[in-house]
Amino acid sequence: MRLEIVESTLPGTRFNTGKAEDPDIGINSLQNYQLSPNHYFILDIRQGEDDHKYAELVLQKPLDRESDHFLQLILTALDGGEPRKTGTAQIWINVTDANDNPPVFSQEVYTVSLRENSPVGSPILQVKASDRDEGLNAHISYTFSNIAKRAYQKFDIVPQNGTITIKEALDFEETEKYTMTVEARDGGGLVAHCNVNIKILDENDNAPEIILASLSTPVSENAVSGTIIALINVKDRDSGENGKITCHLQGNVPFKVASVSKNNYKILTDSPLDREKASGYNITIMATDKGSPPLSSNKTISLQISDINDNPPAFEKSTYSVFVPENNPSGAPIYSIKASDPDLDRNSRITYSILNSNMEELPLSSYVSINSETGTIYAQRSFDYEQFREFQIQVKAQDGGSPSLSNNATVWVYILDQNDNSPRVLYPFPGAEGSALFEMVPHSAEPGYLVTKVVAVDADSGHNAWLSYQVLQATEPALFSIGTHTGEIRTSRGLLEKDAVKQNLVILVKDNGKAPLSTTVVLNLVIAENFQEALPEMTRQSSDSEHHSDLQFYLVLALALISFLFLLTVILVIVMKLRQSGNPKLFQCFEPNTFSKAQVIFPPNYEEGTLPYSYQLCLSSEMRKEQISFPKPHIQVAENLLCNDSSQVVLVDGNCGDANAKEEVGDQVSYVFRNSDVDTTALLLV
Predict the structure, then answer these.
(1) Which end of the chain, N or C, is less surrounded by CB atoms within 10 Å?
(2) 596 pLDDT more than 60
(3) In this structure, what CATH number is given to the domain that contains residue 404?
(4) Which residue range forms the structural domain that includes residue 644?
(5) What is this structure's pTM?
(6) How far is residue 117 from each of residues 124, 205, 243, 245, 550, measured CA to CA in Å?
């Protein structure tokens, strides 16, 4: 017999096994049934209405397919005869499965360590559950049943085999550990659970983070070493050695970094600061962890250095040379002096002033002035090279700091000569009409004979004072020549009888300036052996001069007459007033005849009455005590008045006087006769 019994069949359930047949009767017929020993079934023998006995299998305890999924029983039927006979039947019981076993995990808790840099998609572990059932009841599927949202985003599980994989990149600094519950469900709906703990292992994947806590900027350039300028905080999200940090500063800067506490540092000055060398610094802080490989990060902070007035103004040079042409316009700039100050703002604001000068004739302000802001030096007057050629001033540059600093520079002003002075003839001294006195040339003069020398000077200097001489006009152009640079007038050839006795030379004296200036002098040369022979020509020359100067004479005479009439009117008014006051003898007029002629010495051959005018002198009563005679002069040249010595001059008494002694008055030379007995009122024509 074959039976299929579900293992979930309840105890007490009966199973009919059928009945045995025994053709004997009575005691020899079927009497009893026996069942082979087992744990699950017993026999219950019943007798039917026909008094026939049959057996039923009664389930004594639940079946367990997982323990015995197949049972083989032997049912024995017994009669009562002697010997007892039996009949057997095999009962094959197939225990069919019922979902009476839930899934069972191999571990209640799964623990795994996982590096945070594990790639996405890689499996990390597999949970395993078993089910003793079979078929659909033994089919298990896996899911997360109790899991945080963040863990659900990071991990995934394969339902068919329970493999857990990484769904999203892991970060130790975000979450160090994940805990989740995995559920296993069979086909019959029975479930089982296990816990999964995933620990994330740190990797050195985070560089240190630098946070600027405070910064003191700007810093004064006179800050002492050790002044704190900044506080920083350094963090590293890694752990262990990966989170240990060291700090240092990059580059050669006058600062250093020092630890205050864990992950806190201070930056302080390490050496003196100088704003003029560096007005600011970009300080780069480098933080490095101790991971393998180490990671580092940097942060740059800008620090400004504030200025103090520690630099005086500086000139490019201690001494300046300025060249100014003379005759410069008054008030024009002549130079611009410049000082620099590396400080800032008011500490570098420079003002200029003139301290002193070596000019003592006039106040300094009458020579130069300076613009206090720009340093431009102005000439306050037109300079004259012939008056002074150089002068020195001290210029002071002062900054606006507190306290202020200053510096001085020397400025030498050199006056450059301009060709503003014409040559001036010293010898021969020109007369009233621009002509010199007569020079005599003997008839016997040979070619190259030195007639005279023109001496001229120029108040300018350098090239402007280089003089050259040339004959501008001459009665006989070929007769005389002049040295271009010496001014010596010499005969170019021997004198001939046909040559005119009187020779006029117009000499041009010219300087060497870019715009040359010149002057002329007229030389009157007389070809004669002695003074008496030259006298007629000299007299004729005087007459010609008077003729040419008539117009000028009349003009001067008219001016003198008007002045005389004015003075005469004033005198007459004064005289009338005095006479009315009762002192008529205060003034008294005298005729020239009243004076004694014996008191005056006259030249030989002197005659009275040769001049067409006479004098009337009015003297005070006090002056009448002295006798004065005014003779009427008459010029008559004496013979044999030539002196042998060139250092002597002819006097009117016929004697030779000493002409060596001379007095310079301005640019003129006057000769004083010191050994003559002639009265100083005498007139002499040389």
Answers:
(1) C
(2) no
(3) 2.60.40.60
(4) 563-671
(5) 0.48
(6) 13, 8, 17, 21, 130
